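pipeline: protein-struct stage 2 | run 1193 | SnoaL-like domain-containing protein
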Amino acid sequence: MSNTSDAAGGELSGRVLRLIECMHGLVQRGKRDGDVEVDDWLALADIVEIEGFERIGPFHDALDWQGYTEMLTGWVNNTEGWDPVVKQVSEAGDTVFVQCEEMLTQGDEVVPFYSLSMYRFNPAGKICHIGVYMQQTHVYDPDAAA
């Protein structure tokens, strides 16, 4: 994981960066061995509120922790590569915002995605909500517009 962030170095920001690092590590392992299991995500149980967790994805898809880890497990075992470049981290109250450039490898091509994710924490300091907003480069095809 590359980190070029202007991080507001709070404790909550550190927990979010740990989650991103864990994801990156499991992607590397899944790419190499294809043996990541749902239980591997329990390594994050000390920073994630398992009960009551919600992740809202870029397509308004809502997942609880079980659904999120099942989706991630399938993804990490089948992706060719994912390299997040953290651009900026900002912490405000119980919320951390992370701007990231995500490089997804598909065959011989590296496709950049740009994301802004919002991580909310409960009073115990655990991540209870993730909201993901994404932007993808779109190549304009004038023939498709006709």
